[in-house]
Specification:
With about 250 residues, the protein is mainly beta. The protein has 3 helices and 12 strands; from the N terminus they run ββααββββββββββα. The strands form 3 sheets. It has a 6-stranded antiparallel sheet, with no helix packed on it. A 4-stranded antiparallel sheet has the order 5-4-3-6. It has a two-stranded antiparallel sheet with strand order 1-2. A hairpin with a 4-residue loop joins strand 9 and strand 10. The protein is elongated, with a radius of gyration of 26 Å.
Length: about 250
């Protein structure tokens, strides 16, 4: 707005301070992960008649590293059952899988490491990974390196299967959902010490996480609402009102 004082016209802007980092990250833009060079989406093949009533055989061409992912991926080649072509899929690799191994997917596949079956055909107590949460969502639970889920029960009347997730929580999913037999490969990855900051930087750089992270109380007042002061302190409540405008909802 404009204000005239002693004959001098002052133009005062309504904007004060600057857009802090927390607000800039919310928009995305340059703060997105670097997906160039990644192997591909890790998911099961599209559910079709061949999988629902029988099985398909694929062969693992190679095990590949996917930047930004702890678990390795298995590059599996399937022969298309309906067209004269081959289909390439990337599965989350289970412990014990190797290049050249045959992988069977479908209702009538054998119960062995790396095969993909519906939960209705997997007995209780079986260790599984990459479990679907809904029919044909191509894998949702127990996908991180070294993790697995366990089939703990089922209800034949409602067509539901109960599984125990890596966190210990129990979840009920439809019995038509698929899962891979075995434990996700790459276990023990977090046991190795980081040792130096350069390794930590590359670890976070793959997922575009900002590291190292500066504490807001160590910033200047223009950089964050917790900044400034002769001593590093918040100076205001860290809790934000639910009725506050979006620009005000920034904190630690």
């Amino acid at each position: 707005y404009q204000r005239r004082v002693h004959g001098i016209l002052f133009v005062i802007s309504g904007q004060m301070g600057k857009v802090i980092k927390g607000q800039r990250k919310g928009k995305g833009s340059i703060f997105k992960a670097y997906t160039i060079g990644r192997a591909g989406a890790a998911k099961f093949r599209n559910l079709d008649f061949a999988e629902r009533e029988g099985y398909l055989r694929g062969v693992i061409k190679e095990l590949v590293h996917d930047p930004g992912r702890g678990a390795p991926l298995a590059k599996v080649i399937f022969r298309d059952p309906y067209h004269y072509k081959h289909r390439t899929e990337f599965f989350v690799a289970a412990e014990g899988m190797y290049s050249g191994q045959y992988v069977f997917v479908g209702k009538k596949a054998a119960l062995s490491i790396g095969n993909v079956l519906p939960l209705s055909e997997i007995p209780d107590g079986t260790i599984v990974c990459n479990v679907e949460g809904a029919l044909n969502d191509k894998g949702q639970f127990a996908r991180a390196s070294g993790t697995s889920a366990i089939v703990i029960g089922r209800s034949e009347d409602s067509g539901k299967v109960r599984i125990r997730l890596p966190s210990g929580d129990r979840k009920t999913v439809p019995s038509e959902c698929r899962a891979m037999i075995g434990v996700v490969a790459g276990g023990g990855r977090v046991d190795k010490p980081i040792m130096k900051a350069g390794v930590q930087w590359h670890k976070y750089h793959a997922k575009r996480h900002i590291w190292p992270r500066v504490r807001p109380v160590a910033m200047n007042p223009v950089d964050h609402r917790f900044g400034g002061g002769n001593h590093q302190h918040l100076g205001r409540p860290a809790t934000i009102s639910r009725f506050a405008p979006p620009g005000r909802k920034v904190g630690k």
